Amino acid sequence: MERIFSALAESNRIRIVQLLKEKPLTVGEVAENLQLRQPQASKHLKVLHDAGIVEVIPQANRRFYRLRPEPFKELDVWFDSFRSIWEGRLDRLDDYLHDLQAEESNED
Amino acid sequence: MERIFSALAESNRIRIVQLLKEKPLTVGEVAENLQLRQPQASKHLKVLHDAGIVEVIPQANRRFYRLRPEPFKELDVWFDSFRSIWEGRLDRLDDYLHDLQAEESNED
DNA sequence: TATTAATATTCTCTTTACGGAATATTCCTT
DNA sequence: AAGGAATATTCCGTAAAGAGAATATTAATA
Which one of A68, B8, B58, B75 is separated from B103 by 20 to 30 angstroms, measured CA to CA? Predict the structure, then answer.
C-alpha cells in the first residue's frame, strides 16, 4: 500500500497514470504527451513499474507501458474499508466526547 | 490528488489513518497505539492535517484528530475513472498492436 | 557489421523528508 | 499566578528523491 502511494506521490507520475488510462504508450509517446525529456519519462515509468502499477510490453524497438489492474484492485479494497466514514459518518464525535466525559466523571 | 498521495506515502501515516478509522483519537493515544514518540505523532498528524485528511477537535487540554470524509470522496471519484481498467480491460493490447502495425504498413 | 532509433542508466547537484532530542506553547487546575 | 499535562515546534544530521546532462544499452535494419 505504501509503495503504491509513494509511486503516485508525484505529479508527473499521476499524469502518466492518467495518460495510460486511455491506452498503452511507448516511452517516447509519454514523454511527448507530457512534455518530459525521455530520461525523465523512463525514470518515472521505472518507479511506476517497480511499484507494480505498470507493466512493459516490448515491441520491436519500443517498449509499451500499460497499467496493471492489480494495484487498483488493491487500492479499491483498502478504500472500501473507509466507505463508512463518508457514507454516513458512524463515529459521531459529539457522542464520543459525551461518552468520554461520562467516563471521566466516573473516575472521581 | 498529489497532496493526498504524498501524505499517505509513509507507513506510519497509513497506520494512523487506519487507526483513526475506528474513532477520533488524541495525539497521545495515537502515539501510544503505534509506539511512536509524541513529537513524531504530532508531526505526522500535522502532515495529514495539511493534506486535509484529518481535522482537529480541541477538547480542553487535548486535541482529537478525526478523519475528514472529503479526501476519501475525492479519491473515490478519481478511482472511478480507472474502474474500466480492472473490470474488463478495454484497451486490449494485442488489438492495439495489431492496429499499430496496420498503420505502419500504410506508411510505406 | 556499422548505423540509427528507442530506451535505460549513471553521475552530480539540490531539495525535501524523516527521526531524535530538546524546547516551546497551550490550557487546565489549584 | 504557578505547576503540570498535553501537544507543537525547532534544530540538527542524514537519507532519499528529483531534475538535468551525458552516456550506455538494446534491437532493428541497411
Answer: A68
